[in-house]
Input
Amino acid sequence: MSVQAAYDNWSTTYDADENLTRDLDQIITKETFMSKRYKSVVEIGCGTGKNTLLLSQIAQTVYAVDFSASIIEKAKEKVNSVNVLLASIIVSEIEIIKTFALLEDPRRRAGQRHNLPLSINTDIFSS
Output
């Protein structure tokens, strides 16, 4: 079974399953970002949207992507914010069209901040 197929299968129980790493990530993301404000944020591997709601509060626009279409459907059920664009992507379909100014990984040790440009075809967000 491919990793993508495994996540598609897991989508039905993902939020209910005990997952300490996922839950800790949510806590750290909230503590790290709640006081910040951004024009746009890209959330790669958004899963079912556990951090997407928070990101929608601190950014004008959130581009949330995951490679599992089933996981994205769960995120769409949970996240109903006009400033959030959710999409399932295949990495090979990413094109250089839109550049995002900031990517941060709160799980990195304190003080390490990585600002990396990321480009993605925004056409994948059309409904």
